[in-house]
Input
Amino acid sequence: MTVSNYPLPRANAQTQPYWDGAAVGELRYQCCSDCGSVQRIPRSLCEQCQSSRLQWKVSRQTGRVLTFTTVHRAPLPVFKDMVPYVIAILDMDEGFRVMANALPQACAGLEIGTRVRVGFQDVHGMALPVLEAALEAAP
Amino acid sequence: MTMNALVTGAYDTAVGSLPGSSCMSLHAEAAMGAVADAGLALSDIDGVLCAYSFTEPHLMLASVFCEYLGIHPGACLAIQAGGASACIMVMQAAALVASGQCRHVLVVTGDNRLTGMSRDGAVAALSEVGHPQFERPFGISVPASYALVAKHYMHEYGVTSEQLAAIAVEHRRHAGRHPKAHKREAITVEQVLSSRMIADPLHMLDCCLISDGGAALVVSSRAAARDTRGRAIEILGAGQGHTHEHIVAAPSLVDFGCKSSSAVAFARAGVAARDIDVAQIYDSFTITLAVELESIGFFERGQAGLAAAAGELGLGGKLPCNTHGGLMSYAHSGAAGGMFHVVEAVHQLRGTADVRQVPDAKLAFVHGDGGILSAHCSLVLGG
Output
């Protein structure tokens, strides 16, 4: 399977700052300048008040595991060499969400509620967020 | 109360592996069957609703179907809401006939996913429902998305894999009573737990089938229903609930749109969950049904799997559920998967469910879930 079949993210005008940030090792998120709410994932307007006055901020890259799964059956041929792999949804401390795979050293003892740090890994030439390390056991 | 609309015809094709079938041939067979069941002629049909297809994808599937069948209705459109499509189509058909825009609406679904594209092909196509930038790059699939819900839900309410497996076991028991079911041989909790892990905690036997098949209904206005032959089933209530599309953006991993969709449907029908005699509820995975049964109020949180193990979802149980075997054991053919639930409810309310019959079934609840517990539609039907 060639690299071109990997479903890499294709940034659009609304998400370009997110992926530009990833490329320089910054995890960015959107905050509404009108109502102050933090968007779960980036878009062109605030999901709470629909204002388009959104501000990009830089995350401290720490959060908690909301949930995770270990995938044993790849949905596409391009993921077959990766199985088994972990997919986690992370509730970041600033209030946004990240879905990411987990580095092998971060998987041991991973639980719901575990505090984690997000980093980046190169996937076919693109920096994607990754669950880099578990910081402590779940409370 | 009432929606002023009745199901006057229902039909489903054979299901499973149907070599030689196509999406449109299944649509046509199901449609002709439903119209005949209603005792109508094709010329009586003045509205057509279709859903979507993986094997014959088209921007205008309802127009493709009407051309294929050679009919020219006054209203024709396609509805795409994943597993909620069938129930939403019924709700929309009810609106068309209740408003006087149509007299008899044909609601038709079908796909030959198993022989037309293979299991791998279907799994790959389904993975495209993931968010292209924030989910798909991480190898997400529909089973993995439901596994993310399962892991969280089980953690919150102390649900075990054994309890979820009991749901799959009861579905297979139901399917064993249906001569057409795709999978009929009995399974045990141990077999579910030792089946291949797909995405932890969901095993192969926690997951729905991929099947060929089609199903159709005729929905008629009260006045037009007098022209029909079969026993009409009243659409007493309907409701929808929508909270998100992508699981990464879901506001909650324990509360979903089924809560509001069922509340609206029950209120419109003037009934409560405890009044329901038989339920046909979307069961794409064991966790799907557990979440829905508990969110809708049929069981307390964390109790659905235990109830299944105690036989409460079986014939003679507190809530006979998915008496045809559901998506896990009867069949899953895209939008037709949800339509099989509606057709089975019609059988139950007409008293034509043979050895699957729930005695004296007068009130049925049908529920569809699209996406990752994203789009929900509930129906209350009365015999």
Remarks:
- Chain A touches chain B at residues 6-11, 15, 19, 40-41, 66-76, 79, 82, 85, 87, 89, 97-101, 112, 123, 128 (CB under 8 Å).
- The helical segments of chain A are 16-23, 104-107.
- Residues 16-23 of chain A form the longest helix (8 residues).
- DSSP finds two helices and seven strands in chain A.
